Amino acid sequence: MRRLFASLYESAILKHPVLTLIALAALLTVFVSYIPDFRLDASADSLMLEDDSDLKVFRDIYSRYAIKEFVMVTYEPSGDLFSDESLENLRRMHDELIELASVDSILSILDVPLLKTSGVKLTEITPDSIKKLVDEGIDRNKARAELTGNPIYSDLLISRDGKTAALVVFLKTDEDLQQVSGERVGLLNKKHDAGLTPEEKERLAACEAVYQKAVDSFNARRSRDVVDIRRVIRPYNESARVLLGGVPMIADDMLTFIRSDITTFGVGVFVFIIATLFIIFRQIRWVVLPLVCCAYTVTMMIGILGCVQWKVTVISSNFISLMLILTMEMNIHLADRYRQMCAEMPDASHFDVITTTVRTIVMPCLYAALTTILAFCSLVSSGIRPVIDFGWMMTIGLALTFIISFLLIPSLLQLMPRGSGARTDGLQSAVTGFLARIPREYGAAVLVASAVLACTGLWGISRLEVENSFVNYFKHNTEIYQGLKLIDDKLGGTTPLDVVLHFKTDAEPADDEDDWEDDDFGWAGEYNPDDYWFTPFKIEQIKKVHDYFDAQPEIGQVLSLASLMRVIEDLNNGKPFDGVELGVLARRVPEPFKTEMLDPYINIERNEARLTMRIIDSAPQLRRNELIKRIRSDLTGELGLAPESFTMTGLMLLYNNMLQSLFRSQIMTIGTVLAGIFIMLLVLFRSFLLAFIASVPNALAICIVLGIMGLCGIPLDFMTITIASITMGIAIDNSIHYIYRFRDEFQRSGDYTATMSRCHGTVGRAIFNSSVTIIFGFSILVLSNFIPTIYFGIFTGLAMLIALLSVLTLMPKLLYLIRPFKTSHACGR
Questions:
Q1: Which among 3, 121, 16, 110 is positioned nearest to 568, based on CA atoms?
Q2: Which of 4, 35, 104, 774 is close enough to 172 for a disulfide, judged by CB 3.0 to 4.6 Å?
Q3: In whole angstroms, what is the distance from residue 266 CA to residue 291 CA?
Q4: DSSP for 250-294?
Q5: 727 vs 528, residue with greater confidence
Q6: How far apart are CA 686 and CA 152, in angstroms?
Q7: What is the pLDDT of residues 766-791, one digit of tens each?
Q8: How confident is the model at residue 825 (pLDDT cuts 50, 70, 90)?
Q9: What are 507-551's pLDDT values in tens digits?
Q10: How far apart are CA 67 and CA 492, in angstroms?
Q11: What angle do CA 493, 495, 499 make, to 5 degrees?
Q12: pLDDT tens for residues 76-89?
């Protein structure tokens, strides 16, 4: 079969290079037309599990309580926040923001009711009787004390020290998007629960198309909204520190970072490729040919992504740099082998040199591509759409890299004069020569050092943690970090978490009907069935759960019905209300205040109450998964709630589910990847021992890198958690190329030492060149503003460095010790 493919390749491709190039150009032209459809995505949905049951609950609860999307504008003047100048600037900024077409409403210290400062009795509350901070004659000292001590306003609209205020800017919802999203979610839920009929499948497909267009339009609009808000607040930085925070801002900034990273990485890697190729080969053709191949492959892949409507997210934003690096790696091996054949076949025709080059290098390149593809395929099992797409992107990209490399470069070589077989001795030869002496002269030390490093790595791996922190994803000098950190430190935390309490009416004690009439409040005759929802049982449950969350050090502000109750109890001189009094009072609250203070926290129709809180995302002691487990355990144990009587939801829970699922899938698939690579090595080398020897250096590299992360306290996140499988697939390429060449060279000499020296001087140089290319290529990722991408670049590059050293030191020593090739005259140490 191999001979048949070789014959077809030679007759159809190598003998017709012009036709091959014309066909490649035509194919590229087709896919270039789809490049305008190339899209980016940084929405919150892009980091959620597709089949997460908690996601269904999240969407249901957030629609039930009509929770609006918002951003927070923090305002920290250099002087007194309550001075005329500061409040006037805050008011002007408020008025300019409310004029924006996308802004629905704004909540701030300027427009919230100051019940205590107003001095109005509860029974006399009307919209006109309640004063606000901007009203004439307001006592600002009393207002400051009320705002900073109010459990609703403090840590939301104003810091406890009274120095920082916030404008909570609620953005208008997209009714069309909500409608199509609701239908789509309903069909998706039915698909996962009971399956869809053929008609429903067609409807879901139609919904998906409409939904994607609506989401693209919505994201573009939100991006403009953030730009408009920043434009409004920018001038106020002259007299105050004004920052922006919130989920829409995170999504928009991440989208900006993705665009920046794609440009930076692409240009950076491209420039690096030019410099590296010139240093390695010192020939223009070996700068131009790989560049043409890299440009063709990446352009083709971008067109494919546009054609199939795959969006690039922060997870896959480095796919261009990865493809450039991996394409260049394969081209280096191809070029090095061609130059070697030119030197070894001085009398052969150019066609025979190219044919021999392809025949001798195609199999190790094919298996190198397949092992890397297998590693990226492990991402497909994650259940997270962007991670799945990234896995498929790189799988298609690597297949494309292999095919284009062996079509484009040999065809272009056919149209060029025969190259020189001269090989320049320089740094590569000096390094590989030095590395060749290590297994010969210090083989025992190599084995001991490898064992010690492996044990240390395993110890570090046992200390690895899985965490996700929005605040710590960004560099400290970025606006997004500063805004989120300020909100974390002074305004009650960043990442939202909700708990909904579900009540059973028949399990609650009945109110005393005599409590209905109270002459002090004059509520007789105001009967409404909803007033009886506020029973002592429910009130105490809400207060108990609220106080529990308030006591947790990782949780910032907590809001619930208990917050409002404590405000009005304070107005009532600390005297608590019974259920009926509270129900009637709630009904008498003016509508604007009721909408803001009561409706988000209770749902009488469903007999439930909502508690919402924000996690202090930058707290060093925060361990999100442990916190979620502790909350569930304490609610059922310490507080005595039945498991079915409460529901946890919120972005923190969903992102934690995503990361834990990714961790489990990657841990489970590492074994699968190892097994798959081992089987491929068995097929390639037809030797269990060679497959084992080839696997050891790469397993050691992964063990050491993950161990370093564990020992340094660097948590795994949705980027760094993929290092193991990706590195495994890339680093095994070196082992394949080395052993494949070692086997061929050993058949000539039958001497392990001589074969090792020759391999280090030939394929070892190619391994060194390609590995250095990969290492420095990944190092360009440190230019990102996104910390997980920086860690991904650093530790993947480090893993490749360790794999390079292991392949050229540890693996030759294992080959000598195990001696998988039979010979009667092998010598060496």
A1: 121
A2: 104
A3: 12
A4: HHHHHHHHHHHHHHHHHHHHHHHHHHHHHHHH--SHHHHHHHHHH
A5: 727
A6: 71
A7: 888 888 888 887 888 887 777 888 88
A8: very low
A9: 444 444 444 344 444 444 445 556 567 778 888 899 999 999 999
A10: 18
A11: 100
A12: 998 899 998 999 99
Q: What pLDDT digit, counting tens, does each position of 655-687 carry? A: 888 778 777 776 767 777 778 888 888 888 888
How many residues in the chain? 829
Do the beta carbons of residue 583 and residue 534 sit within 8 Å? yes
DSSP state of 10: I
For the beta carbon of residue 141, count every other beta carbon within 10 angstroms.
Answer: 10
What the block records as the tokens of 357 is 């080059």
Please give the helix or strand (H or E) that residue 27 lies within, else none: helix 17-32
Count Cα neighbours of 702 within 13 Å in the Cβ-side half-sphere. 23
- What tokens does 198 get? 């053929």
In CATH, what class is 69-173+227-245? alpha beta
Domain boundaries, the chain: 8-42+251-467+656-818, 69-173+227-245, 495-615
Model pLDDT, residue 214: 80
- Confidence bin at 583 (pLDDT 50/70/90): low
The H or E element containing residue 614 is strand 608-615
Block residue for tokens 């131009």: 288
Dist. CA 66–CA 69, nearest whole Å: 10
| Cβ-count burial 235-246 (b if 16+ within 10 Å, e if not) | ebeeebebbbbb
Nearest residue to 186 (alpha-carbon basis) of 5, 59, 22, 329: 59
Burial of 6 (0-12, 13-18, 19+ CB in 10 A): middle
**Read out DSSP for 408-419?**
HHHHHHHTSPPP
What three-state secondary structure class fits 111? coil
The DSSP 8-state label assigned to residue 532 in this structure reads G
Q: What φ, ψ does residue 65 adopt, rounded to 5°? A: -95, 10
**Which tokens is 106 given?**
């704004």
Apex CA 638: angle with CA 632 and CA 639, to 5°? Answer: 80
Average of per-residue pLDDT values in the chain: 81
Confidence of residue 121 (pLDDT cuts 50, 70, 90): low
Amino acid present at 545: V
CA nearest 497: which of 361, 390, 650?
650
594 — pLDDT class (breaks 50, 70, 90): low
Contact 781, 324 (CB under 8 A): no
768: its two tokens = 């060194």
Mean pLDDT of 113-137: 71
Nearest to 369 by CA among 329, 409, 339, 341: 329
- 752, 827 contact by CB (below 8 A): yes
Q: In 317-357, which ranges are E strands? A: none
Q: Which CATH topology does 8-42+251-467+656-818 take?
A: Multidrug efflux transporter AcrB transmembrane fold (1.20.1640)
Q: What is the DSSP string of 64-113?
A: HTTPPPEEEEEEEESS-TTSHHHHHHHHHHHHHHHTSTTEEEEE-TTTS-
Helix (H, G, I), strand (E, B) or coil at 174: coil
Predicted local distance difference test score (pLDDT) of residue 94: 93
| Token pair in block for residue 345 | 């076949």
pTM above 0.85, yes or no: no
State in Å, rounded, how far the first CA of the chain is from the last one. Answer: 40
Q: Which amino acid is at 324?
A: L
CA separation for the pair 89, 78 (Å, rounded): 12
- Rg of the chain in Å (alpha carbons): 33
764 vs 432: CA distance, rounded Å: 6
Residue 410 has pLDDT above 80, yes or no: yes
What is the rounded CA–CA span in Å between residue 311 and residue 386? Answer: 8
* Residue in 108, 101, 127, 129 with CA at minimum distance from that of residue 117: 129
Residues 174-232 pLDDT 10s = 777 777 777 777 777 777 667 777 887 788 888 877 877 887 788 788 888 888 999 99
Q: Are 692 and 446 in contact (CB under 8 A)?
A: no
